[in-house]
Design brief:
The protein is mainly alpha-helical. It is 71% helix and 0% strand. The radius of gyration is 32 Å and the shape is globular.
């Protein structure tokens, strides 16, 4: 043992202490390893700090420190009256808040808007929480029942017919449009250089319209008879219930397996009947509030939610159509997508608002807000189609081939296997389009629809609140509202993306 010690294998003296390791965690570690670890990062850190100092600090000072919180008119927001530099004029926002939320909606009827917003929150929150049950029923109520109830609550009025009357009216409108086009071709044939061609085409179109008229004549005759009874709503409702329930029973499998679709159909119509009776829709319903009186945050939410909900199904249908093996469907989808993507949204809104009525029959009108909603849905659907198509292209062909080997049809393969995976891949792109649409709703003010920004600009005309800081306060408030909605959508999309892709984590 003494030989080992003397030969130098065992150290006789202690080593000197080493310096403590560099801290790489916490705030100090972040500053040392991320912000000040190189000359370039030091320069970027200094520039960023200066940028924050000259932007964030003045904004906080304007919005909170130097802000005016109480007052009844513009005098409270003037520097000479306050004795110091005045920041945001929050009494102006408080005074104009009803206008910014409801627009010119009548004061006595604003409870209807509050009720619609409450119903939307009550139905939407369970859909956003993954662990809550009954998602199918909740989705059916939100996407199908809620829009109808919201329309009659916001717009008011009642119904004079049901499915039978609506179907007859749409078919008659279609037939009138065809007959009108045929007569226009015949009138043009009298002065055109290609008169024989136009005359023959016009007669062909009129012949087709006449054939359609006699095909729908029994339906329109039955509608006219029901309207003459004085109780057309409930008679039409009963006939529609029987027809739809029989169709559901037959398509569900008849006597062997069709009882469940039949029960669902009867239960759905029973619920619809209860809603009609409770809301008094068979006796005129609530007082009518024209959409021209809507405005503020109400219009912003109506346009954005309607555009988001309707554009995604349109985009999915167009994306599937663009990948179809049927040439007619593929060409139509490609033409539709390229046309709408090549036209600015302002042009679409102008066309839908001012030019679309020129192409409709004289006895048929479409509300201005509805025309804008249709234009926005078609415009956004074209962009969503490309997002969905990107997700479909990311799915390996082996997925569809494996499903075909198991005997699944194309519809089941697409709806159960391919499409869920494709939508999972493009969640960021879809939500990005939704956020862009929510902000683009401000363009509807160009076509005389007062959204949040439109109502805000209208409030600037009030001389009672004409002050230097009023303009900046109003736009700051609108910016905060837009940021809260857009940031909420982005955070929830990140949550959904992480939850759906949890199986891919290492």
């Amino acid at each position: 043992m003494s030989d080992i010690t003397s030969s130098g294998y065992v150290r006789q003296n202690l080593l000197t202490e080493r310096p403590a390791p560099v801290k790489t965690t916490g705030f100090v570690g972040l500053v040392r390893t991320r912000l000040l670890n190189s000359p370039t990062n030091i320069l970027l850190t200094i520039v960023s700090a200066l940028l924050l100092w000259f932007t964030v600090i003045p904004s906080v000072k304007f919005l909170f420190v130097d802000a005016v919180w109480t007052g009844t008119d513009r005098a409270a927001c003037l520097s000479e009256n306050a004795g110091f530099t005045v920041g945001a004029c929050w009494p102006y926002i408080q005074a104009k808040l009803p206008q910014l939320i409801y627009g010119f909606y009548p004061d006595a009827e604003r409870w209807r808007v509050d009720l619609v917003l409450l119903l939307a929150v009550v139905l939407l929150l369970p859909l956003l929480i993954p662990r809550l049950p009954a998602k199918a029923l909740n989705a059916s109520l939100f996407f199908f029942a809620f829009p109808v109830v919201a329309f009659f609550l916001l717009h008011g009025g009642g119904i004079t017919g049901f499915g039978l009357s609506w179907t007859a009216g749409l078919l008659q409108l279609f037939d009138d449009s065809i007959m009108g086009a045929g007569r226009a071709l015949l009138s043009q044939s009298k002065t055109s250089a290609i008169a024989p061609l136009l005359w023959g085409l016009g007669n062909l179109v009129v012949l087709v319209g006449t054939a359609i008229y006699w095909l729908i004549f029994p339906l329109t005759w039955l509608r006219d008879q029901l309207e003459g009874t004085g109780r057309s709503v409930w008679t039409d409702f009963a006939i529609t219930t029987v027809v739809v329930s029989l169709i559901a029973f037959v398509m569900g499998g008849g006597v062997r397996t069709g009882w469940r679709p039949l029960a669902w159909s009867i239960g759905t119509f029973a619920a619809i009947g209860i809603v009609i009776k409770l809301m008094g829709l068979d006796h005129g319903g609530l007082p009518v509030v024209q959409t021209g009186l809507w405005g503020g945050l109400l219009v912003t939410l109506v346009v954005s939610v309607a555009g988001i909900v309707t554009s995604l199904p349109i985009g999915i249908a167009l994306a599937l159509g663009r990948r179809s093996t049927i040439p007619l469907i593929r060409i139509f989808s490609i033409a539709f997508i390229e046309f709408w993507r090549g036209v600015p949204l302002i042009t679409v809104l102008f066309f839908a608002t001012y030019m679309l009525p020129l192409f409709l029959p004289g006895n048929f009108t479409v509300d201005g807000l509805v025309r804008a909603l249709i234009g926005i849905a078609l415009f956004t659907g074209a962009y969503q189609a490309e997002n969905v198509r990107g997700g479909l292209a990311a799915i390996p062909r082996g997925q569809g081939e494996a499903a075909a080997a198991l005997g699944l049809s194309w519809w089941k393969t697409t709806s159960l296997i391919v499409l869920p995976q494709a939508l999972r891949h493009v969640i960021p792109n879809l939500v990005n389009s939704f956020i862009s649409l929510f902000k683009d709703t401000s363009l509807v003010s160009i076509v005389a629809l007062f959204d949040l920004l439109g109502s805000l600009r209208a409030s600037f005309a009030d001389p009672k609140w004409s002050a230097p800081s009023t303009l900046f306060t109003g736009f700051a408030f609108a910016g905060i509202i837009y940021f809260l909605f857009c940031f909420g959508m982005s955070r929830y999309s990140l949550f959904v993306e992480n939850r759906l892709n949890a199986h891919r984590r290492n």
